[in-house]
Write a structure and sequence with these properties.
Largest sheet: 7 strands, mixed
Strand content: 15-25%
Distance between the termini: 16 Å
Radius of gyration: 22 Å
Helix content: 10-25%
CATH class of the largest domain: Alpha Beta
Structural class: alpha/beta
């Protein structure tokens, strides 16, 4: 059974976008409820930044800040103004009826007058145990060169990039600003990247390519020391010394729980029909952060879209008359329902 009184806004997620949105909503007296998620092998509440030890490019922290501390501060600020936090995933949603219905992992179904989806995207890893362990402890394995490449840890060292698409070319080229050498490891004999991106990388004197090569293992206890490489044709293995590994084989947006109820791109990112807006294909449902962004994927841009989504949700609810004595009727695809009846 859903609760009798729907929440005005439910925020799904717990990264920079979610906490920024909930901060704005709470200060607007909209009593947001955040479903921050549950720990799993792939993701933990707080998102990708929970695996980042040093963040030097988030404004306001000239000395840098630990990713977990930044997320804790963002959460605390949102809670200070009245945000309710529930440590569950949203397992499924029903956006076909109004109020919207959301089913948490184990507790009762809830209803919401508006929803902000800020579930982010997870980096695709190679699936090696030591790769993911070192990524989680800040041991020199990363999925974002722009986020981490400028850190002192990686400077003047040989760095490896795994991948063959445009993202891998961008990562490798960016890392040449800091590394002594960048080694691109690719399992085929040609890149999938666009011609211009591939040519730019191949022309850089600091970049060399290990063709027809896969990473069999990541070496190192507290920090990466090298890679065990495997020839994809012969199976022969060898080791190389590296001081950092950047995995650039794509990201997967966390949108499976939506079950196709919002329009998404071919790669699963939520589409926002109007440029520079966060409303989705369903009126009253907004999206923010990496779940809509396959290009920038930065904490600061996620926070910015979280602010946008909150302001849009507040205005949308106001236009529907949520705070008025006799609110107008909301037209849905299947029926008309008075929002006053839902509150």
């Amino acid at each position: 059974m859903a609760q009798t009184n729907p929440h005005r806004v439910v925020v799904i997620g717990s990264g920079p976008a979610a906490w920024t949105a909930s901060l704005y909503l709470a200060r607007a007296q909209l009593m947001p409820v955040v479903y921050e998620g549950e720990p799993s092998r792939e993701m933990i509440p707080g998102g990708q930044l929970m695996f980042t030890t040093d963040i030097e490019n988030f404004p306001g922290f000239p000395e840098g800040i630990d990713g977990q501390e930044l997320m804790a501060r963002m959460k605390a600020q949102a809670v200070r103004f009245g945000t309710e936090v529930i440590s569950e995933n949203i397992a499924s949603v029903d956006f076909s009826a109004y109020p919207f219905r959301l089913k948490p992992s184990w507790s009762d179904e809830v209803e919401a007058l508006s929803v902000i989806v800020a579930t982010g995207a997870r980096a695709n890893w190679m699936g090696l145990d030591n790769e993911e362990r070192l990524a989680q402890i800040g041991g020199g394995v990363s999925a974002c060169a722009v986020c981490d490449g400028a850190l002192p840890f990686f400077r003047n060292r040989r760095l490896a990039v795994v991948g063959g698409g445009d993202s891998a070319m961008e990562e490798a080229t960016y890392l040449t600003k800091f590394a002594s050498e960048v080694v691109i490891i690719h399992r085929r004999d040609h890149f999938r990247a666009s011609k211009v991106m591939a040519e730019r990388a191949l022309a850089n004197p600091k970049i060399r390519v290990e063709w027809n090569t896969e990473v069999a293992d990541v070496l190192g206890e507290n920090e990466i020391t090298g890679l065990r490489l495997k020839d994809s044709r012969t199976g022969e293995e060898r080791e190389i010394e590296v001081g950092g590994l950047f995995v650039a084989i794509g990201h997967t947006p966390n949108t499976a729980f939506l079950q196709g109820q919002l329009d998404t791109s071919a790669h699963g990112y939520i589409l926002t029909p109007c440029p520079w807006r966060t409303e989705t294909s369903v009126p009253g449902v907004f999206a923010a952060g990496d779940v809509i962004d396959d290009y920038y994927r930065q904490a600061i841009t996620s926070a910015g879209t979280g602010c946008m989504a909150a302001l849009e949700a507040e205005r949308w609810l106001s236009h529907q008359g949520v705070d008025e004595a006799q609110p107008p009727v909301l037209e849905t695809a299947e029926s008309s329902i008075g929002i006053a009846d839902a509150i």
